[in-house]
Amino acid sequence: MFLIAMDTLPRILALAFLVTAMLSVGMQITAGDLRSLLKSKGLLVRSLLANFVAVPIVGIVLARTLPLKPEAAAALLLLACTPGGISALHFTAKIKSASLFAGSSAFLLSFVAVFLSPALLTLFLPGDISVVIPYGRASLFVVVFLLLPLVAGTLVRSRGERLAEKLSKPCAIMSALIFAVFSVLLMGQRKGAMNAVGKEALLSMLIFIIISMAVGWFMGGPAKETRPVLATVTGMRHVALCLLIALNTFPDPAVQTPLVAFSALMVLPNTLLTAYMVIRSRKTARESQK
Question: Hey, what CATH class is 8-280 in?
């Protein structure tokens, strides 16, 4: 998802999606869930390694070996070093028993990316390019639209589980509807960006998405809930933060076009993975009832 260079309505819808999605996640969290999450240090470490080590290496190899234009290669490096794609919440919400891990991963990766991604980019971008990011603006975004709704949801849950259960589902439905309208409004802009970057760049980004999702799946561990969630979270990079960095770092606006194209391209693979997991989950539930 990207928030820069948008019209007012799509920007409002994007922010509304984040707030309602994180509220829904917060209202599903119990004290037991939090204790379980804190004990899952291995999973959190693997999530960080997948997104800040493995995927950046994949991006660097692809950017330096594939025949890409300079702006497409720069965009691929930006995406590889910038995890925390908040759009993942739209897909992971459909995977039962994984909302806590999905919400915490989205928040953690987004927060860490604000500070760690510029350092990674400094290592991998050409030496004459100085990476610039407005830390205050990026940090404020994470706190206001991710952390506060998550905390608000947990507070509602702590005051009454029945109330939280009644409110969490409408919030989830509302976030899904908002995401759908948001996607429709930006369809033309995304399609134009995909046409502009060309087939070679699109194929390179698709390869990058699939490999990133495979890395997330492998690092997700043995639990059937965490594998698809980490695959989605890892495959959907933080396009909004990438655009923020690109606007302040690259004088050539052509770098922004592949980033917008990526925001459209990453939807289909994750939709297919989510559909597969939902179908498999329902099949397992039916078999267990026999």
Answer: mainly alpha
